[in-house]
Amino acid sequence: xxxxxxxxxxxxxxxxxxxxxxxxxxxxxxxxxxxxxxxxxxxxxxxxxxxxxxxxxxxxxxxxxxxxxxxxxxxxxxxxxxxxxxxxxxxxxxxxxxxxxxxxxxxxxxxxxxxxxxxxxxxxxxxxxxxxxxxxxxxxxxxxxxxxxxxxxxxxxxxxxxxxxxxxxxxxxxxxxxxxxxxxxxxxxxxxxxxxxxxxxxxxxxxxxxxxxxxxxxxxxxxxxxxxxxxxxxxxxxxxxxxxxxxxxxxxxxxxxxxxxxxxxxxxxxxxxxxxxxxxxxxxxxxxxxxxxxxxxxxxxxxxxxxxxxxxxxxxxxxxxxxxxxxxxxxxxxxxxxxxxxxxxxxxxxxxxxxxxxxxxxxxxxxxxxxxxxxxxxxxxxxxxxxxxxxxxxxxxxxxxxxxxxxxxxxxxxxxxxxx
Length: 420
Known about the structure:
Layout: E1 12-14, H1 31-35, E2 43-52, H2 54-60, H3 62-65, E3 77-87, E4 93-103, E5 111-117, H4 142-151, E6 155-159, H5 176-196, E7 203-212, H6 214-229, E8 235-241, H7 247-253, H8 258-269, H9 288-292, H10 297-303, H11 308-311, H12 314-322, H13 325-328, H14 330-338, E9 350-355, H15 363-375, E10 380-385, H16 393-396, H17 398-409
Parallel strand pairs: 5-6, 5-7, 7-8, 8-9, 9-10
Antiparallel strand pairs: 1-2, 2-3, 3-4, 4-6
């Protein structure tokens, strides 16, 4: 089979159904259904989308990196769209999508694999991170942000979360188990792809997880669940950019995200455990399903208030501020606990990038997480950039992240800001 690195930049479907030859003759309509018989991490399809020259990678990065400067890029990048199998909410098989960025003839040779989780984009399928190019304006400029990692020789995969491709369910938002499954299965599927298509290049036996905001929650969830869900994945560490690993502070510090959480968790756990009427002020209830389940984050931030008293019932606002959720809202408190991530004692190193001007995840919240992660045996490098806002943690942390990924893949000791 010819090298895809020399393929013309046209859409090319790879029947990498070498792993399941009986799917080769399946139509586009029947492939997803047939794929549900495959185990988690199985690759269903890979579609070649385009090749970005180094100059095109840098041009695409202009918006994402802004005032922090366009990163240098060493090589061209090939972009693919993947579909792969993961584990659904009831333990069933589910098919999700991901974007994959592959360095073309990287100067360092074998590449580490970086799995990156998106920040909040919304609950509806139209808000899926991999589809942002179809929107009037991108929600995170993720292609422009992630292609430079591949431009520096790091194979980078960017999965959608569970639910974006299921019209019967919203995205499983801040749901730790499904996020971990999606991230770990993205690593599995990419490793399958490189095994079945060696002309793509060579992967190191090194996987790193990272993510912005909600994606940080997902990256650390993957570290928690890996030992029993995907122990074969050689996970070497995690990177969080403005990571939201504990959902409780988000209700206080970024309240306009709470309707998303409540709408998603109601669908997952049922209204007996998650009753939006006990949490949200009455004015937000009639339109909750219409708006939270349908609008993307840019619109949601215009609809909902960034104010605790305007968003919640007086009882919930009091309990949230006083830290008495365990007593006053025990069911919701239990779900917050269940969906905390990163503190299982996995012992893996981490790089945590925080912005000193972040109004979504406050410094004190991030520093509590770092201290707890240190206490559980991880070496944590904490980088706080004082003039950076929430979204800017991604570009401001890029160079540190690239260095950190290569050092972990080389087996170097992880730097640590943990007090001795």
